[in-house]
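Predict the 3D structure for this chain.
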Amino acid sequence: MNALVWFRNDLRVHDHKALYEAASTHDSIIGVYVIDDFNAKTAHGFLKHSEHKRQFLKESLEDLRKRLETLNIPLIVKEGPVSEVFDALSQRYHIDYVYYHREIGDEETAREKDLHNRTSLNVKSFFQKTLLHPDDLPYSTQNMPDVFTHFRKDVERNWKVRKPLPVPSRLSKRIQIQREDCEGLNVIKNGPSSIPCIGGETQGLKRLNYYLFDSDAIATYKETRNGMLRYDDSSKLSPYLAYGCISPRTVYEHIKTYEATRIKNQSTYWLVFELLWRDFFSFIHCKVGNHLFRVGGIQNVDIPWHKNETDIVKWIEGRTGYPLVDAAMRELKQTGYMSNRARQNVASFLTKNLGIDWRVGAEWFESQLIDHDVSSNYGNWNYIAGIGNDAREFRLFNVTKQGKRYDPNGEYVKTWVNEIKHVDESLIYDLPTLNPVFKQSLLTDYPEPMVDFENSTAKWKTIYLKAYKK
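Done. Predicted structure below.
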């Protein structure tokens, strides 16, 4: 019997439950990746796949194809409805079974339902997105606590991380693929590389080993993680986790090995802590479903957002008049990446100072970020917008104070905002409040602030607090 392994956000051969089970049961296998509609748009009209995302995906698939070849498994890349693609392939290559990993988002689960409802194939599915398996939690996902700290303490009392699965052995038989099924990757046009960040399992494992064992950068992660400019300020593993080029269990195992052979400190723990945040948002998504995407968020808070298109465009293009926001938004558009510290600031500014519907920001991130993960992205936006988990106070990021604290010499903003490269570092983050005459002598083409920070903060704080009382 021949089998098909459906690759999704799990573009690897190590620690891959579906591939491992298929290879343990069947003599010959084909791998299949079904391309989403690259012209699909979000509700606000953003393309879901930026050029950076397409390029990272293409690199990841090219690497997956090479790694599968060593296992005597061909990879087919196809466009079209999942059930139709698989039915056609099953007839052509005498496929009896399909193996895959389940996802969480509604679009992803809709494809799974389509497969189950419209195909006669035997289907076997597994869950392997998270560090902790849902069956190993101290409660069901429906009984998940709504506060991360409670979740973390609960799981740390009875810690259980399953061992990563090995790469399957090379199969003895190979299915010969017809010419028409060999050219699917050509559908994905080449785009600009990111950050620089090359997609694929090979590069993901290389980055993991570099960040831990080659550079020892993990040993100072807690101190450097808020940096926004330097590549090794953070692990940069998130794109590889988002596409499944590496598994969180593999990352965890490497950290444990590092702690046993090099050093165990708060920084090594903090990277595990970040993996737990990723798990938390995934399991909360399982719990709340599509409530994650509604205008009032998980808590269904009735905040009177607006969608001023002029303001949205200024935010997207980095023309807000606030250097930290502008640098971060320009970096995102040019590279497909933005640091976590910067993400929190631009999200806070959009919702707490401009009062724009948080979903616009979440959808723009979905469009642009090469490390976009639906649960983490929308969960974080819920949290920052004050409508998600633990929505009990008006959380605000002061983009001026944050810039001075995390980019004191202005290196980050000068990297991305050409108009202010010549401005003295002591003045950069005070530009929005400088005397207009003095400011004009410094700048000729940098935009005026969209809003007065203090006044807009006070306005939206009042609106938020009123909404919380309803």
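Residues 131-162+200-288 form a domain with the Serine Threonine Protein Phosphatase 5, Tetratricopeptide repeat fold (CATH 1.25.40.80).
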